[in-house]
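STRUCTURE:
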């Protein structure tokens, strides 16, 4: 039995390839770990706000001194972090937008990356504090990036691996449904991605 967190950021709801892929991965995980609990956080439906200067001030203000607005701003971050810490397995749906992640997913990352909370600086350098997690990136791209000349245009998987690794999540597997904008390949994109993942 595992606690699974499904982060959704595909805008096309159930027809998003990253959502379909994430759901299929979770079905596999539930077969492997019967009785697992799944929490779904849909960032496309309930977006976290872009960070403002006020958020940064709120993050560094002691709770007792926070205004109501600051408390609410910090609370959004604390809630997202707690969901992350409670999970054993995290499935992150990541559509490629303009070679990078969606702004909704970036806002989530900006809320979970907090110095002193999810990472810290030690005399040996930075240390991630979100440990012992397995992460699957359910990634969807209109074109092809797994090989060939477009590989270096993929700023989704290297970025997510880097930032999650910085926070301590080093066991990250990218599951890629590619060619979703191309008629000849889109039907098979999710199946092909699932064929090569071992859950
Ligand atoms: C705003 C926007 C930007 C996109 N940028 C790219 C891109 O840079 N490269 C690409 O291959 N596909 C791009 N696409 C296509 C998506 O990556 C593709 O539709 C993917 O399946 C989206 O994930 P989803 O199906 O989970 O929503 C873009 C789509 C949108 C809507």
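SEQUENCE:
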């Amino acid at each position: 039995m595992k606690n699974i967190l499904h982060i959704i950021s595909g805008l096309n709801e159930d027809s998003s390839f990253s959502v379909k892929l994430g759901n299929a991965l979770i079905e596999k995980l539930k077969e492997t770990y019967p009785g697992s609990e799944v929490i779904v956080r849909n960032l496309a439906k309930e977006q976290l706000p872009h960070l403002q200067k006020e958020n940064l001030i709120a993050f560094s203000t002691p709770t007792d001194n926070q205004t109501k607005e600051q408390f609410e701003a910090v609370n959004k971050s604390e809630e997202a972090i707690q969901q992350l810490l409670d999970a054993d397995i995290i499935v992150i749906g990541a559509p490629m937008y303009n070679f990078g992640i969606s702004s909704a997913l970036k806002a989530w990352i900006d809320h979970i990356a907090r110095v002193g909370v999810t990472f810290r600086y030690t005399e040996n350098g930075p240390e991630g504090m979100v440990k012992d997690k397995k992460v699957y990136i359910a990634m969807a791209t209109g074109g092809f990036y797994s090989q060939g000349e477009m590989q270096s245009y993929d700023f989704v998987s290297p970025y997510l691996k880097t930032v999650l690794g910085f926070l301590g999540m080093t066991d990250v597997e990218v599951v890629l449904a590619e060619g979703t904008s191309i008629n000849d390949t889109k039907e098979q994109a999710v199946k092909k991605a699932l064929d090569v993942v071992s859950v």
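REMARK: Residues 10-12, 16-19, 95-99, 140-143, 180-181 surround flavin mononucleotide (CB under 6 Å).
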